């Protein structure tokens, strides 16, 4: 039931269980079991975290990525929160996803290759410093790709914002580039065979969060959303057997 609940809406999951196992259960039972196991996974993770560090050789490079996506939630979960809709009320809460993976080699064309089975995910809806807006126009991306971060900053400083809000946004972007320019030498990093894009984490939050929690008509409580996120993270990180084995031995 937990695996079905991790992949399918509760309302239709009972059909899968009936077809696959010949067992009749209700949608509410699938929800209850999925959320309970998701809760157990969080406890298991907290207890086992020292043993869950991904092993990697001295030749491997470890990457840590994070991103966020809005998850539709029930009204009580957005009380007092400002949103982007016309009525000013938030409709979603941000689910943050972390992704860890390693890379040891590059392919024949010099592009980095993710180590097989090295990718793991952690995710949750929780408070953190707000993600700043990232302004990347096509011309600026090309400059970054040639290690010309200073030119990007200079181009931004020449802009004439039409109002105070736009001016504040521009200054925030300039500050971001100034603060992170040492980490934005993309040409140098590419020449060294490193990943420089956000494709891994972007694909991750679509696979881990979007495909299950952002379907049409869904609205979650933060508590239950976190339980299903934990459940999906463990299954997609290939930790499911470890978790289930611990329950069998308990």
Structure description:
- The chain has 10 helices and 4 strands, in the order αααββββααααααα.
- By secondary structure, it is of the alpha+beta class.
- It has one domain (2-147, 185-249).
- Strands 1, 2, 3 and 4 form a 4-stranded antiparallel β-sheet that branches.
- Helix 2 (10-21) crosses helix 3.
- The longest helix has 22 residues, at 27-48.
Portion in helices: 40-55%
Any idea how many domains? 1
Strand segment tally: 4
Alpha-carbon distance between the termini?
A: 20 Å
What's the rounded overall pLDDT mean? 77
What is the helix/strand order? HHHEEEEHHHHHHH
* Shape summary: flat
What is the number of helices?
A: 10
Spans of at least 5 consecutive residues with low confidence = 50-58, 129-139
Biggest β-sheet, characterized?
4 strands, antiparallel
Structural class: alpha+beta
Strand content: 5-15%
Q: Taking Cα atoms only, what radius of gyration do you get, to the nearest Å?
A: 22 Å
In short:
The protein has 250 residues and is of the alpha+beta class. It is built from 10 helices and 4 strands; from the N terminus they run H-H-H-E-E-E-E-H-H-H-H-H-H-H.
SSE order and pairing:
Layout lengths: L1 H6 L2 H12 L5 H22 L12 E12 L19 E15 L5 E3 L5 E6 L12 H8 L3 H9 L6 H17 L5 H6 L7 H15 L8 H15 L3 H10 L1
Antiparallel strand pairs: 1-2, 2-3, 2-4
Helix pairs in contact: 2-3, 3-9, 5-6
Output the keywords.
four-stranded antiparallel sheet; alpha+beta
